[in-house]
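Weekly modeling sync, notes
Attendees: S.R. (lead), two postdocs, one rotation student

Agenda item 3: backlog of single-chain predictions. S.R. asked that every request posted to the team notebook include the full sequence so nobody has to chase files. The rotation student volunteered to paste the first one in as an example of the format we agreed on. Action items at the bottom.

Example entry:
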Amino acid sequence: MLVRIGASMYGGLHPWSVELIHDGLDVTPVAADDRGVRVDELAAVLREPLDRALNLGDHGEHLAGIEVFLPRRLFDLPVDEWQLLPDHPGALCDGHDGLDRGHGDARGPDDRNVAGHEDDEDNEDDEDDDFVDERSMPLGMRRTVVIRDLRRSERPPSPEWRRRWRGVTRGPLTHEPLHGRAPADGHLATPRSGSRYLYYGTLSALDDTCVAVYCGPVASGEGQAAMRDALMAGHPVVLWRRDRHDHDECKDFYEQAAHAVGAARHAEGLHEPVRDLRIRLYDPESARARGLRGKLAVLVDPPDRPPRAARTMRPPPLAAPDG
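Predicted structure, as returned to the notebook:
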């Protein structure tokens, strides 16, 4: 499934569209809004179109993945934490970033039924515990959720992009810091002073099988500058930490990223290690006990999906009689 969120227009509104892609070739429009919505409205507005598209995209044992085309200023958008259901008792929650998540039963001891009908409350709790719907889970815990670059996708692929995609598809993958410094150095709040293309030389010299890794957000500051240069150098796979944090956590983050890249071997193999990390990172206490850090984001941006010259539009398939 392809989700496109456009650059900000007048009033800070972002147009969006949701499409299905079949066999890497045919594209099916599902829903769109050219007028746009604010960033903080995207999760709620896209919930129903995403649910509808994924119902159409899931077939048999195949679970549809989600490729999200974003302008670079939105690369840290927590799409992997969006949910297909609104607040609901039993839904996994974490309650930040403006996303809709359930918070379970927050009643205190003074709210108990003073008339002695605690059995009724127990039954209600049992019903909440019995709630089972995979759509209540964050998208990235079940599905492949990756970021793609909106502006780059609107132009013919560069030779460097094609070459590097062939490299990461072949593998075996290697990894290097996006900023070109030692992993223990962490990240800078602002880019180093100097020429505009501070990181381009280092990123251009990396092997074609290399995944660039960054311990920090990439929508502003040094991360934004380094990500821009990585894209200009043709890098199709980048892994980063999209939440803010202390520098002393970067060593642990680079170690877990290195483990994921090593386990993947090639670009398509990266999805399962990333999903596994997102699951283990979702419980803060368990993550801390294991030395795991951060909110994980990943760019996987193939140059020819969907092919520019073979983009065929067709109406969406009919829904089943039971919806």
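Discussion: group reviewed the output briefly. The longest helix spans residues 42-57.
Action items: rotation student to repeat for the remaining queue; S.R. to check formatting next week.
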